[in-house]
Write a structure and sequence with these properties.
2 copies of one chain form a homodimer.
Chain A: H1 20-27, H2 31-38, H3 46-59, H4 65-72, E1 77-82, H5 87-104, E2 107-112, H6 118-127, E3 132-135, H7 143-152, E4 156-159, E5 169-173, H8 175-188, E6 194-197, H9 204-219, E7 229-230, H10 236-247, E8 255-258, H11 261-273, E9 283-285, H12 291-295, E10 302-304, H13 307-323, E11 334-337, E12 340-342
Chain B binds a DNA duplex (30 and 30 nucleotides) through α3 and α5.
Chain lengths: ~350, ~350
DNA sequence: CCTCATTTTGTTATCGCTATCATCAGACAA
DNA sequence: TTGTCTGATGATAGCGATAACAAAATGAGG
């Protein structure tokens, strides 16, 4: 029986996979040299490297993950522990790190933990022999987890922790700057009474954002009215309560800056319930640019965190750390990435 | 220098350190025999099999997947193509298939495509030598993609496509049953004028859901009022328009069943804008149980699809298909998984 | 022109498992 | 008994990649 399939796709099906030897043959070098080129190896003459790379491209070669793992004696395994599936956040996060993980052939082990079970879940990950750990918010701010990580001397990266954490690498945007920029933007629209809804007090980023808001007002010569700052917990519900409090103030703010998108969405809802039009009668801004921001209507003006870039960066830091490890303390790198202000439909000049 | 690194790692008990040879030695047979026992081998005397199995149990042996794949030929690569990152959906989806992929050491290649770029993206995946393809909604309903898959004779699984698709396996809940169950539930609360917001017409599930709604009403002896069925597109915005239309009807429905959570959330918002209390004056239900359902307030009564179980099942189907493949047509399996009705805060008995 | 230090490249030996084929023990017909 | 056949087992050879070491090429300095 012929495999009536023979065309381009014939190369699939187990056997036709391009191997490292074929690449080597085509490039006129030994397989080992190809291997070195693939793995960013040093000590390869650039002429050789180029010819190998050309061969790789022409044959559309990609290494066999199983063989590599077998030969290399178990690849790198990195744990990703998440707790609060702020789904929108998580999915973007996953996409970023997954992609990078696949590119570098590291095993990403994603584990969820319920509130209170952080330590148990982390232990579980540790026991399954991981070489590094990624901590997205809100876990990145858990002191217990940080302790555990330090004690086990395992490389870890906190993402969006708001502030650096001792003994742990981190990837952040500058929350202070971002909040200040957003507040400046609102000020530029003419608003003077700007309400602020705070984030969860146990997240360091919350404080940074409030400070940014305060700084912008202060720099603009505006007194900070404590009544305009309402506590929140990053949840829709807490945002609803906070927004109601602000909107029921005798002298209502003309703009409200919520510390995340969920609370901003709640603010929009609260305003609508009071027949206050957004943005004509009330400007609303969020933070994070999660999917929710464009899901609701009107779409939220917000600050974009490049979440998938951040998780990708986290993975890179870990890999570098693991690769360069001498058995001593994990290194502690802090990376700051850029945020972007995204004006959409919930902001308008003061009438 | 001592290898401080190695020792740390050594202390974390690596599982699967036991090899097939050790088992063979302990059982007094050759590795090959052990292999046969493991792989449901025929032609092994039952006495031999038992002794091998005992050895396996005692040593707590588990085979090295990488080695197995290498020896058995070709690692499996499976593509996961997604387009509309309904973030909440995607993240749950990813978690399910990722987990299963890791467990079986298959490479999951996640690729995103923009609207209109489905074919190009799929081709790209195909060209990168994948052995199977997973299609979450809404791509699972793309006829062009289905054609491509059939033409290339590559095993594929559509998840939540609503209906079976010729030549492609699928994993679904019974959308018809689910919608009927939800409608029955609303009826049981005493409601008689029940509005329905349809999903996107190009998604087969939309039709099934409407049919379920109609069936429930019919069975209850209630005439289906076409005015109570409003078209939608699964987006918040379309839901808002549909809800407004329903709420502005001369004889307003006392309940609205939206075909997904986004549109249900929009319905709640529209109601609030009209000062209609949910659920006291209006019962609202969604579908899918995405994160949005519990994000907003009041929390949505909805139908839960076990998304991560479904994506996990999809991967299993693919793996089975690939493993049993003889070079002929991919098989076409349809799996139906259970849904769950989740009553939360947006439904109440008719006053 | 030769030596020594330093790249750069090639060789060999696995990694843990399974395909393939050879081998061997027993069953059974002649 | 002898030969043939069948099913159970073992020996050998990779799968595709990398580690560790060996060899060759390069370059600097005397």
């Amino acid at each position: 029986m012929t495999n009536g399939n023979g065309s381009v796709r014939g190369s699939r099906r187990g056997r036709g996979e391009v191997t490292i030897s074929e690449v080597a043959a085509k490039a006129g070098v030994s397989p080992m040299t190809v291997s070195r080129v693939i793995n960013g190896g040093k000590n390869v003459r650039s002429a050789t490297r180029e010819s190998v790379e050309r061969a790789i491209a022409e044959l559309d070669y990609s290494p066999n993950i199983a063989a590599r793992r077998l030969a290399a004696g178990g690849g790198v395994r990195i744990g990703l522990l998440y707790s609060n599936p702020s789904a929108a956040y998580l999915s973007e996060f996953l996409v970023g790190s997954l992609d990078e993980a696949r590119r570098n052939d590291v095993q990403l082990i994603v584990e969820k933990c319920d509130a209170g079970g952080e330590i148990a879940a982390a232990r579980h990950l540790l026991d399954s022999r991981i070489d590094g750990l990624i901590l997205p918010p809100p876990l990145c701010n858990s002191p217990e987890l940080a302790d555990l990580v330090r004690r086990e001397k395992i490389p870890a990266v906190a993402v969006a922790s708001g502030l650096p954490i001792k003994g742990i690498s981190s990837v952040n945007i500058d929350d202070f700057d971002a909040a200040r920029a957003m507040t400046d933007y609102i000020l530029s629209l003419g608003h003077r009474r700007i309400g602020f809804i705070e984030g969860s007090p146990d997240q360091a980023a919350s404080g940074r954002r409030r400070e940014g808001y305060v700084a912008a007002l202060t720099e603009a010569g505006i007194d900070v009215d404590p009544a305009l700052i309402a506590p929140g917990l990053f949840t829709y519900r807490s945002g609803l309560a906070a927004a109601e409090r602000l909107l029921d103030l005798p002298e209502r703010p003309t703009a409200i800056f919520a510390s995340n998108d969920d609370m901003a969405a709640a603010t929009v809802a609260a305003a609508h319930r009071r027949a206050i039009d957004v943005p004509r009668q009330l400007t609303v801004c969020g933070f994070d640019d999660t999917a929710l921001a464009t899901t609701i209507w009107p779409e939220l003006t917000t600050v974009r965190q490049p979440i998938s870039d951040m998780s990708c960066a986290a993975l890179q830091i870990l890999m570098a750390d693991i690769a360069s490890r001498n058995g001593d303390e994990p290194l502690e790198r802090c990376e700051i990435v850029d945020f972007t202000l995204i004006p959409r439909e919930t902001t308008a000049p003061l009438q």
